[in-house]
Amino acid sequence: MGVVCALLAFTVFLFVSEIVRIDLSAILVLVIIGLLSYAPGLEKLADVPHLFDGFASNAVISIIAVMIVGAGLDKTGIMNKVAAVILKYGGTSEKRVLPIISGTVGVISSFMQNVGAAALFLPVVSRISSRSGIPLSRLLMPMGFCAILGGTMTMVGSSPLILLNDLIQSANNGLPEGQKMEQFGLFSVTPIGIVLILTGIAYFLLLGRWVLPGDEGSENTGTGQGTQEYLQRVYGLKADVFEVIVPAESPLVGQILADINHENHLYIISTFYRGKTSMVQVLTAEIAAPCRLAIIGRRWVVEEFAQKYGLTVLPALDIFVEEFAPTNAGIAEVVVTPDSKLIGKCPRELLFRKTYGMSLLAIHRGEETLSHVESETHESTQIGLEEFHAGDMLVAHTRWDNLMRIKRDPDFVVVTTDFPQDELRPQKVGWALAFFAVSLSMILFTDIRLSLCLLTGAAGMMLTRVLSVDEAYRAVGWNTVFLLACLIPLGQAVQNTGTAAWIAQQIMVILDGWPIWSLQAGVAILATAFSLVMSNVGATVLLVPLAVSIAVAAGGNPAVFALTVAISTSNSFIIPTHQVNALIMGPAGYKVMDFVRSGGVMTILFLVVSLLMLNLLY
After folding, report:
1. What class is the 224-314 domain?
2. Domain 329-414 bears CATH identifier 3.30.70.1450
3. Structural domain spans, the chain
4. pLDDT reported for residue 247
5. How far is the C-alpha of 222 from the C-alpha of 133, rounded, in Å?
6. 55-91: string of b/e by CB count within 10 Å (b at 16+)?
7. Residue range 579-607: mean pLDDT, rounded
8. Confidence band (pLDDT; 50, 70, 90) for 564?
9. Which residue among 10, 414, 418, 499 sits deepest, i.e. has the most Cβ atoms within 10 Å of its Cβ?
10. pTM score, whole prediction
């Protein structure tokens, strides 16, 4: 037990100090436990033949499977649509986006494993971050914490709550008839879970600016180059994309797109007419109204143009927000090859935008720049009539999936590399949703092991080629897998050597004779502490019988004490040993101290709110 306590202290030291990467810290702890098990007198520290069983554990296989399922859904473009809906209602304001994301994930995780809900929303939050400009590190932690909190909303929301009724049934065998506990119904804990989720959202809304990390350390979630920053860097002007409403009576009706662009020193890059958006509209087409236009240009130029033709400039992109999201489209640079069939022909002659799916913004030729948009360095040019030369650098706005097709065209060399190079497969959306529904139904309506339910969905998506096997391997965050798998033997050592039971008994001796409310608080704190260093299921199995005994001895309600344990084992926010925390740590670039700072306050709030709600309800 002394060796186990020393190992626990060493693990916490490695996590907090971050002398080495956190996943490497976990590997070191696993190696040390294995080697020490060969020392005389320490043979029971770990079961060496089963030392690596953590890699085949239900939790680890579930995480691998849910990452693959999430990647499959993402590959079909569903997550883009979910992100677009959230942005539509939340805009780019952190205070509006955060509660929508966190609340949604919290509700979802009340009916499925919280790590599954968090993994499915990880790509959604990544897209929202890149489109709204809100750092990923300021969105993922609230989302992850609310996924954990959501597990307290129903009796199937987390493993300890699923297990609780069985433990109560076992404990009833040792109780007299008058003190036997009733089992809890599916929604018995719902009021507690709702208040906890609302508390989590309120916490980050009110204190988020102080407890959440900024953008430092988080990975760049944007892909490709955004339109605005590229135009500013290349042309030296603050051009942007504007959405403009053209009424039916506007004098603009009937005019040709190319002529409008040239005469007004701007560029109409996309149109919306009769419910259809087109980024590849032929520039010789005429304006039909009522419609909407997406225009690139300087703000004052676009406003002057709108006033001239009786148009309305919207304050932000609405219909076109999905089209111009950095995860879907952006600025690409391509070079005309020496033997290209484009040489000697002009864009208008080639119907360039319709043929190649690229909206040509500029041509770099030697030291000269030809562009629709006028700037301090050059006048605007009607580049639609310019003949292409060998070596011309074309600057165009295009969808990334279209740019993948351009890469295979011998007439071009694509210079841009920083863009998503996996094509979306919207045609596979039916298969993806079908296997996701199969997994979810198996989880909710059968007793089949969670990992097997999720692997069924993952295998189905690979079999139907929603994503390839190699893409599935790339979708798995192996640092998360190793972090969790390598810590499982430490949790087993804490339990198997009797360390956990000994600690619990010593604390209960100290609390003997205290008021019932303080005993309940002590049980909650103990369950919280144990869930940080061992599995929440292990902590529940160990502490529920102990809590029932304390309640009976002190004259308290044993069912409430048992429920206190099952709920408090979800209070895992301080260090990234919980599966959800481990999942979000890498993508957001969090440090352990970020969890200590944000999770410390959340842990206290969880204890106070859960104990208040338990006593109000029961």
Report:
1. alpha beta
2. yes
3. 224-314, 329-414
4. 92
5. 9
6. eeeebbbbbbbbbbbbbbbbbbbbbbebbbebbeebe
7. 88
8. very high
9. 499
10. 0.64
